[in-house]
Amino acid sequence: MTDQWVILDGFDGDRRTADAIGGTLRERLESMGKQYTAFRISDLHIAPCRSCGACGYKSPGKCVVNDDLHQILRAVAPCSVLVFLSPIRFGGYASKLKMALEKFMNLGSPYFTVTQGKLLHRLRYPAKALLSIGVTEGERVAEAETFQLLVRRNAQNLQCWRHKAVVLQPAALEAELNGVLEEVLPW
Amino acid sequence: MVRRGGKRLLLLIGSPRKKGTSRSFALTFEALAFDAGCTSEVEYAYDYFDGRRDLAALRERIAEADMIGIFAPLYYDTLPGVVVWLFEQLERVARPALLGKGLFAVGQCSYPFAALNEPLLASCRCFAAATDMAWLGGLGYGGGVLIDGAPLEQLGTKGEKITYAFQLAIADLLVGQPISRRSQDVLMVRIPRLLYWPLAWLMNLRISLEARRQGVPDLERQVYLE
After folding, report:
1. Domain coordinates of chain A in residue numbers?
2. What is the CATH number of domain A4-184?
3. Edge-to-edge strands, sheet with A162-168
4. B136, B179 in Cβ contact below 8 A?
């Protein structure tokens, strides 16, 4: 495993919030000498999973659709920390980021294991830490709780050695983000 | 299929597979709703994403319906991205048609743990809140992969149990009540943790045998590190 961060920016439309978060994160990583690769999902061609099953036996661990997801997974496979940035949509990720994440099932092996009392797929690549940052407008408690639950489940399936879900509001972005980064940058 | 009756249901299938378990669930739900005097219609989210169907037409169908049901597989811990996409579109173009309509959901996952569907159902509840619909609750089913799209009437006791849970849910929905906990309890299968390792071993054996049958030498190949 390399000490490499991979940032998946799932924002679409208005880029102000995404650029503020992404810019601060990249600046802090650079100041600490950490390596990172950032992907802006809206610029990429990502096809949704069609549940064809080809990544099981026909092409183990690799989707047979030729889209930009392969360059993301090539960066994600050896990385140590994964960062998802997204506007919160109905308690989850924005649709295009979600379509990309569906193919993260290829980070797992088809074989099963029992880890920390859970029946899970074995990992195909080294375990990672996960930071998920969701942005929501206003006080939407149910959305924030659903997002936190989703990130916990993602972290469980990815068998992350650390994870953190953060819900930010554009109005209080800077102060909260700095607090979060103080905590996660030493990962 | 359009059937004549009382309340009008629009059942939206969120799976790319047109012969999968979500469809099998929706068709049983449709038949039970028919028996209870309802009209129902089945639509596929992927048809709209792929441009095979027109969103304006879906908006019309929503306007005509009393209640909408989402039937979706669990993809990466929640709704498939295509269903999120459809929700984004509907929030943008169909808010007046959605306003005040009832929404319920049925999620199913491959693991035998129904509780894994919680984020999927919670996401549907958030969509209802965002569009001022009335959230009528949902059901989660664990072990959908074993059904693999088979009609529930061919599944013996398992199929009867799921059908019964749907009957209870429909009875709640038709009197305007959220789906009761009892329906979900019927669907729950509790597997003792003691059995996780034997279960994993058994499934791994099946996977290895299938790999050998298909001539695949290494299922755990690290393709993105090569």
Report:
1. 4-184
2. 3.40.50.360
3. A35-40, A4-9, A81-87, A129-135, A162-168
4. yes
What is d(CA A78, CA B79) in angstroms, rounded to the nearest whole number?
27
Cα–Cα distance, B75 to A97 (Å, whole number): 13
**The tokens of B4 are what?**
């004549």
- Residue in the structure block whose two tokens are 């509780």: B115
Is the Cβ of A53 closer than 8 Å to some Cβ of chain B?
no
The DSSP code sequence of A145-170 is HHHHHHHHHHHHHTT-SEEEEEEE-G
SS3 (DSSP) at A74: helix
Cα(A61)–Cα(A54) distance, integer angstroms: 9
What number is the ipTM of this complex?
A: 0.96
pLDDT tens sequence across A85-130 = 999 999 999 999 999 999 999 999 999 999 989 999 999 999 999 9
How far, in Å, CA of B169 to CA of B172, rounded?
A: 5
What DSSP assignment string belongs to B2-38? ---SSSEEEEEE--S-TTSHHHHHHHHHHHHHHHTT-
Contact A92, B127 (CB under 8 A): no
Q: Contacts of residue B72 in chain A, CB cutoff 8 Å?
A: none
- The shortest C-alpha distance from A26 to chain B (Å) reads 24
Residues of B in contact with A140 (CB under 8 A): 126, 129
Query: Widest CA span of chain B, in angstroms?
Result: 60
pLDDT digit string, tens, across residues B92-125: 999 999 999 999 999 999 999 999 999 999 999 9
Query: In sequence order, what are the residues at sequence separation of 6 or more whose Cβ sits closer than 8 angstroms to the Cβ of residue A122?
Result: A108, A109, A111, A112, A113, B220
Single-letter amino acid, residue B154: Q
Residue B129 with chain A: CB contacts under 8 Å = 140, 142-143
